[in-house]
Structure formats: C-alpha cells, structure tokens
Amino acid sequence: MDCSDKESRRCKHGLNLLNRINRLKESSELIDVILVAEGEQFPCHRLVLSSFSPYFKAMFTCGLQECNKKEVILYETTAESVSVILNYMYSSDLHFTNSSVQGIAVTAYLFQMEDIFTACQRYMVDHMDASNCIGIYYFAVQLGAEELSSLAKKYLYRHFAEVCLQEEILEVEVHQLLSLIQSDDLNVSREESILDLVLRWVNFNRKTRAEHFPKLLKQVRLTLVSPTFLSEVLRRNTALVSNSECLGMFESALECIHRSREHTLTLRYGMETTELLLCIGNNGLGIKSRHGSYAEASFCYDPLRKRTYFITSPRYGEALGNVCAGVITENNELIIAGEPSVTRLSRQKNKTVDLCRYHVRGSQFWEKLCSAEYRECYALSCVQNDLYLLGGQMKIKNQYMITNCVEKYSMELNSWRNVSPLPIPLACHTAVTLNDKIYVTGGWTPQVTLPEDEPERLNNRMFRYDPSQDAWTECGLMTFSKYRFGIAVVNHEIYALGGIGCYGRDRGQARRCLDAVEIYNPDGDFWREGPSLPSPFLSLRTNCTNAGVVAGKLYLCGGFYGADRHEVIVKDILELDPWDNQWNVVAHKALMHDSYDICLVAKLNPRDLIPPPPDLVDE
After folding, report:
1. pLDDT tens readout for residues 452-464
2. In Å, what is the CA distance from 98 to each residue of 71, 105, 157, 256, 497?
C-alpha cells in the first residue's frame, strides 16, 4: 500500500469517526457534560471538548470542581459563539458572519483554540472595509492580536478619508479619536476632513462631548484648512466655538493664513501624495553610487518640485523578466505587462504575457495579477478599470504573425474575454485612453501587395474603440507613418512625439528619425502640427511611450536622440507647456538608468519611495 492510499484511508477513518460522534451528540447518547451560555444548554462530550480545547482539557483533568459537575456555566461568551464552535468540533464546519465573527473569536481565545482564532482573524481581514476597520482595529488591540491589529491599522490609516464618513468612527472614545487625529500617517488630502470629523464626533452627543472639543481642536492643523471653510465652521457652530480657547485658535489660524505666513505644521501622509513621472523598466545599469546598488529600482521624477526618487522595479522578486507595456487605472493602480522572469518560465510549460500590479503603500512589491496568451509588440490600455491587450505579434505554427486580436480583462470578475478585433493587424503600435475610448495608432501592419518588398509597412491610420458599443471607428490620418514615438493626452488632445517614419502612407519610401509633433483633436477628428522637438527623438522601446503629463504640462523622459539611425541615449527631461508651445529642458542628465521600458504618471507618496543616492544628488 503506497503513502497516498494510506493517507486516504486515514482521512476516511477520521471523517467516519467524526460522523459517528456527531450522531451520538444528536441523539443525546453518552452525554457527560452540559455547557450553558446565556441560559442556553449545549449537551456534549468531555472527551471531544478536551480533544479540541486546552481550556476544557485543563478544566476536566486538573481536579477543578467542574470535573464532577454535570453543568458548566460559561460567563464570558455568547450562546451563538458556543454553538458555532461546537458545530466545528463535531462536524468540521465553521461558518462566520460579519456580526458573529468577533464573538466567535473571543470564545475561541477563551477556549485556547488557535485554529479557530486564526480563521476568525483571516475572515476579518478578508471582509475589512471602511465601515468596520476601526472596530476590528480596537478589537484586535484589546485581544492582543498583533498581526490583525497591524493590518487593521494600516487599512484604517490608508482609507481614513472614507472612514471619516462612516458612523462607526463617531462611536469611538475620546482618547481613541485623539490618538488617531494626532497621526501624521493619515491618508487625507485635506485637513478639512479632520476638522469635519471632530465636529461630527462632538455633535453626535454634544451634551457629554462638548467639554472635549478644545483638546481635540488642538490636534487639528487649522492653518492647513482653507479660510472659507474655517469661517463657515465659525458661522455654523457658534455654541461650540463660543469657548474663548476655541475661538482664539480659529482666529489665530485665520490671521496666520491671511498674512500668508508659511505654516510649520507637518503635512499628513495623504497631503504629500503627488503626481510623479515613473520610468519603469528592468535595466539596472547607469547608476553608480557609494550608497548601494539601484539595479532593482526604477527612476521617478517630480517635475513640480524637481525631485528624484526611485520605485522598486519589476525585476525585484522576479515579477517580470522584461516590461513591454503599462497603464495607470482610474483607481491609480500601476499595472505593467511583460514576459515572466527566467525562474518563473522554468516552472511554466508555455510562455505567457504576465500582468503585474504594484502595491502602492508599505509593501513596495509587484504581484502577479493575471496571464494571457503569449504575444510580442502589443499595446495595453485601460477603460474604467478593465484592461485591454491589443494586437501584437504571435507565433502560430512556428511563424510570427501580426494579429488584430483584442482581449479584455475584467479586474472585478478576474476573467478574460475576446472583444471586437482591430480593423487591421498591428504590432509596435501605441494606445491611449481619452473620454472612456481607446485610440490606437502607428506601428506596423502586414503588406501583401508587394511580395518582394519588406513584409510590413508602417501605419499612419488611427482607430477609436468604444467599449460600450464594442465597435471600432477609423479616425483621421497622421501626417507620418511611424513607430517608436511618444504618445500622451494633454488637455483632451492626443500628442504624438518624434519616432521613426516616413511622410504620408508608407509605400516603401525612405524612413528617418522625426522631430515632428502631431496633435489630434477628437472633437473635430483632425491632426495638426505641434511645436517640433529640439531634435529627432525616439522612444526607448518599439511600442512604449516615453512621455507623460503632470499638472497640464507634457514631459518627455529621455530617449534615443540623433539623426537618421545613429542613436545616442540621452537622459534629459523635456517639458512642454501647451500655452507657451515651447520645449524646455527641466532636468539634464537625470539620475535614470541607461534605458527603461515605459513612462507612466501616477499619484504616489514620496514616503513610500526609495530616496536617491546622496552622493550623486550632491553632485
């Protein structure tokens, strides 16, 4: 008999024994103890209780008076919790609800049943949201469940803007509220949220809470609140702020704001969140510092403050071997697509396109989101948190074929499905989202009219996809057929920057590096000429953009620069203000790696990022 048969036999034997004992309980046979909770009786067996619970084992074997008692009264638990736990002991079934899980956890803690206590914590983590996280946090603190309290605290701080709007937070004690609003780590973008919370908490039971208002108000950073909001608070809460101490704090803050004095208060976590240019990739070369390697980090740049940071690259933890595309969702999630790492490939039968998501705060790593059928030179886009994998080059019967296939991934349903294909097969094309529609342009498409010429032609056609109709529409033509160009949406228009291409439709004429900027107006369905780049510029990958938009200005982050095919890597960051129509260099020889794959713009907090090497920043 092999090990698997032996294990299967043991498992069946155990289940059979459990079923027989459960039938004894149901028929009230061999019952030797009755548990009583909230007046409700639960007939059971000492042997079963002692087998599962060290608490009962000690009670029935250590000479306590309960050893000889027929009834054992349980004072610190509910009847519902005892019923659930006994059901688990006799049948292995364990059922929780949001309303019962904390009571069951307390009972499991009392009975010293670690497996149920752990399962309760796991359930609370899985069902945590803005309406219950604060209750879970203080519950975990009270029980000494350190891991649960840590996870709940992180969730509470990260979602504090939503938590402020819930009824649950109005029921906390004054010392608990004080502890929360003192923190610098709250993810709120405006101090008005904190002041509003304090007012709502006091007004929830003004008779008993009004006396706490002054000490709570001291923790609100009033000079970060808009003067209009402060004045409105004074007008609407005359009874509360009639206290001279409170009134003095408001007047002092208003005076400070009106005199334009710089505040010295620390910003909360959410107030530091800002839009950054992220140059994501797995190239680890080009940064040599005495302060350690930056090979597993990707360059980030804050163009408004001219500051450099780094983010953990997909290379770290072997999330992806290389990056081929990326998007930022409406919920500010960073999603990238590419090939699995060598280690992961060795564990797979077939190559796939892997999509990975970045943990924005705290964890700082990339996790696999999903996989799709393998292809190369594809585009990735996002509409309302659905992802679209468009076109590309696929290997079919040992031959590479350019495809028009489009797949849609629903992050809500965690599933892929095919949608309407591109009007023509495309590879190395670009895709952007504007007004909940996807615009695809550029790249290569197969040509069959001249069999002796190159098998592909560059594309200057643009297509618009409407997800609500699952339909494609052809738009106006670009002036140049091209690929390897940057693309971005500025003020509801699409900018196509540089690239390699030729004028008009590609009929086999000579191609060259371009300094041309073309701007597409979706309302009028036409392209116009924009301000030319200082020199011909190519993106660093064939199908990924090196451009991004922050605060209404367009930025071009490094690339290949030169005339014709003589390419030189430059690490300059160019800025275009659409109102000035003039390109300027805002960062010369930026601290980026020798190459990267995709430029994205996301709202991140510098506290969660890796600081630049001090020796290179000083230089």
Report:
1. 556 689 999 999 9
2. 30, 12, 21, 47, 53
CA–CA distance, 308 with 294 (Å, rounded to integer): 13
429 within 8 A of 483, measured Cβ to Cβ: yes
Q: Tell me the C-alpha distance between 51 and 17, whole Å.
A: 14
CA distance 432 to 440: 7
Cα-Cα end-to-end distance for the chain: 72
Please report the domains of the chain, with CATH numbers, ordered by start residue: 155-270 (1.25.40.420), 273-618 (2.120.10.80)
pLDDT at 245 over 80: yes
Contacts 24+ apart (CB under 8 A), 419-423: 419/388, 419/467, 419/470, 420/465, 420/470, 420/471, 420/472, 422/390, 422/391, 422/463, 422/472, 423/463, 423/472, 423/474
Angle between helices 114-126 and 146-158 (to 10 degrees): 10
Pairing between β-strand 379-383 and β-strand 386-396 as defined by DSSP bridges: antiparallel
Residue 138 and residue 104: Cα distance in Å, rounded? 16
Q: Which residues are CB-neighbours of 144 under 8 A, at least 6 positions away? A: none
Q: How many CB atoms lie within 10 A of CB 255?
A: 12
| Rounded Cα–Cα distance for residues 478 and 441 (Å) | 8
Residue 228 CB: number of other CB atoms within 10 A?
9
Tell me which amino acid residue 147 is: E
* 281/299 Cα distance (integer angstroms): 9
Q: Which residues contact 515 (CB under 8 A, 6 or more apart)?
A: 498, 532, 533, 534, 535, 536, 537
Sign of CA dihedral 73, 79, 84, 90: positive
Rounded Cα gap, residues 489 and 138, in angstroms:
45
Long-range contacts of 348-356 (CB under 8 A, 24+ apart): 350/374, 353/324, 353/378, 353/389, 354/319, 354/320, 355/380, 355/387, 355/409, 356/314, 356/319, 356/320
- pLDDT tens, position by position, 390-449: 999 988 777 889 999 999 999 999 999 999 999 999 999 999 999 999 999 999 998 766
Least confident of 200-204, 282-286, 415-419: 282-286
| pTM, rounded to two decimals | 0.79
Ramachandran class of 210: left when φ > 0, alpha when ψ lies in -120 to 50, beta otherwise: alpha
